[in-house]
Amino acid sequence: MKNNPEMSTIYMRITVGGKRNEISTGQIVKTLHWNIKLGKISGNNPQSKQLNGFLEGVCAKLFKCYREKTYTCRSL
After folding, report:
1. How many beta carbons lie within 10 A of that of residue 41, not counting itself?
2. Contact 58, 25 (CB under 8 A)
3. Average pLDDT, stretch 66-71?
4. Which tens digits make up the pLDDT trace of 3-17?
5. Lesser CB count within 10 Å: N end or C end of the chain?
6. Three-state SS string across the chain, please?
7. How far apart are CA 40 and CA 36, in angstroms?
8. What does each C-alpha distance from 38 to 4, 19, 21, 42, 69 come to in angstroms?
9. Which residues are paired to 35 by β-bridges?
10. Would you place residue 73 in the very low, low, confident or very high pLDDT band (cuts 50, 70, 90)?
């Protein structure tokens, strides 16, 4: 959120073949609750668990797409 330093939009950075791209997850979090080192929300409450689960799911889908794309390219 550009005008609110207390809230941040969560982006995912993807690098493939040296090319970097950032994609918004569409999720917003209180900046204070974001753990930069772990790349997830701090806390043990249901909302934190739900958002962290969502982010893990997005990562899993991206890795799956990457593996499928890599496998397809190697098969050619």
Report:
1. 21
2. yes
3. 78
4. 788 999 999 988 878
5. C
6. CCCCCCEEEEEEEEEECCEEEEEEEEEEEEHHHEECCCCEECCCCHHHHHHHHHHHHHHHHHHHHHHHHHHHHHHC
7. 7
8. 23, 23, 20, 9, 27
9. 40
10. low
Q: Enter the tokens of residue 63.
A: 């890795």
Beta strands 34-35; 7-16: pairing state: unpaired
Task: Give tens-digit pLDDT for 54-68.
Answer: 999 999 998 898 888
Whole-angstrom Cα Rg for the chain: 15
For 37, the token pair is 């080192």
Q: How far apart are CA 12 and CA 58, in angstroms?
A: 9
